[in-house]
Design goal:
Layout (H helix, E strand, L loop, with lengths): L10 H12 L2 H20 L7 E7 L2 E6 L2 H9 L1 H10 L8 E6 L3
Parallel strand pairs: 2-3
Antiparallel strand pairs: 1-2
C-alpha cells in the first residue's frame, strides 16, 4: 500500500493557521509588527534601531518604547515616514499615530 504525500508547505505559511487555531492571532500579529518595525528602523533610521522598540498596537496607534526622551522626539519627528513604511511592509500594520513611552530600565 503506497501513501500519497501531501504537497510540501512552508512553515511561514502554516503559522497564521496554527496561531488562529491556538487563539494566538494577536500575539503573532504583534510579533510580526515588532520585527517589521525593527527592520524599518535599521534601514531608515539606524541611529534609532537599538533604542526604540514597538511594544504594542492599540487601536490605530503603535506604542514605541524608547530608551531616552530625545530618541522619542526623533521617532515623533519621523513618525509619518515610519508609519507609511510600516503600513507598506509585509507583516506591518496600519496605524495613524506613534505614541512613545520612555523605558524605566
Amino acid at each position: 500500500m503506497t501513501r500519497q504525500r501531501r504537497p510540501m508547505r512552508r512553515v511561514g505559511d502554516l503559522l497564521p493557521e496554527a496561531a488562529r487555531a491556538l487563539g494566538l492571532e494577536e500575539e503573532l500579529r504583534l510579533a510580526r509588527a515588532t520585527s517589521t518595525f525593527a527592520a524599518i528602523l535599521a534601514e531608515r533610521a539606524p541611529a534609532l534601531a537599538g533604542s526604540a522598540r514597538l511594544v504594542r498596537v492599540s487601536g490605530a496607534s503603535v506604542i514605541v518604547e524608547v530608551d531616552h526622551p530625545l530618541i522619542g522626539q526623533e521617532v515623533h519627528l519621523r513618525s509619518t515616514e515610519l508609519l507609511e513604511a510600516l503600513a507598506a511592509a509585509p507583516g506591518g500594520v496600519r496605524a495613524v499615530e506613534i505614541r512613545t513611552v520612555v523605558s524605566r530600565g
